[in-house]
Amino acid sequence: MEDHASAKAEIEALMTRRCELLVKGDLVASMQMCAEEYELVLGDAPTLIGREAVMEMYRSIYAEAVFGLSFKIEDLRVCGTLAVVFMREWMTLQPHRGTEIEHFALRRLNVLECRNGTWLFVRAMAHLQPLVEL
Amino acid sequence: MIAVIDYKAGNLTSVVKALHYLGAETLVTQDPNVVRKASKIVLPGVGHFQATQLLADLGITSAVREAVAGGTLFLGVCVGLQWLFEGSTEAPETAGLGHFAGRCERFPATHNGAELKSPHVGWNSLEGIREDSRLLRGVANGGYVYYTHSWRAPLVSATASVTEYGGAFTGVVERDNVMGVQFHPEKSSTVGLQVLKNFVEL
Question: Structural domains in chain B?
């Protein structure tokens, strides 16, 4: 049976890096971890297609936001050049500095592909969950 | 009781809310024994065919197989429909349930000489609705539903309705107690609600 330990470790590190970059507000660097055709499904909102569309959404809504983000990987599967990561996330969000902090809990599915030796996010689905359930 | 299979991706809330709105009793579960005992099963879309491997690992695949063989009603949504087929080129090493023959394939890059954008996202119509479809009872040809997907199921004898995008693909599949919709009924306004209502009332 193929051992995917090194790929899993690499992907876990990517998840941590993505989290750190988002907390830092470094949107450009976080999106560089995504494929050009990255797809993002956020709850019932229309699907965002392409890195640029996702960046535009973040810029337009969260340009001045302050994020806190933590996560837990519930399941990580690697199959060849594909990886699927089931995660839970806890997020705090201040739309602007000085405003009230909002708390969110999410479930997120990340799909990654290894291209030319580099794992890239190709698709993500994130859904809000009741805080009490987490 | 409708067992709504939770395979960790979390896009359950809208489906469950819609089922509750229709008066259905639901139980969100990862437990194969709950699936076996349910009167109906709903498998929501998870976003990627590879993620359906979890169903096999949790023992849900065999539970679903037993349940549908016993006549339990099953509804797969989006990738949940695709999973009813033998597999998908999206994750070639992951087997589907194989209830319907054929494999799901990505939309072609071009159609009739023109570029075809993928994923297929947005509202599109249901056409060629099979008259004997119980799931689509009361839904007229041309009814609009909401899609978001890059892979599509082939046309098979169990296809109950098609949608045109880069050629016709299976929008709804139905044979006896096993049904699937490629669109998202929970996002598809009145037509989507009618489909879920039909399923709840079967």
Answer: 2-201 (3.40.50.880)
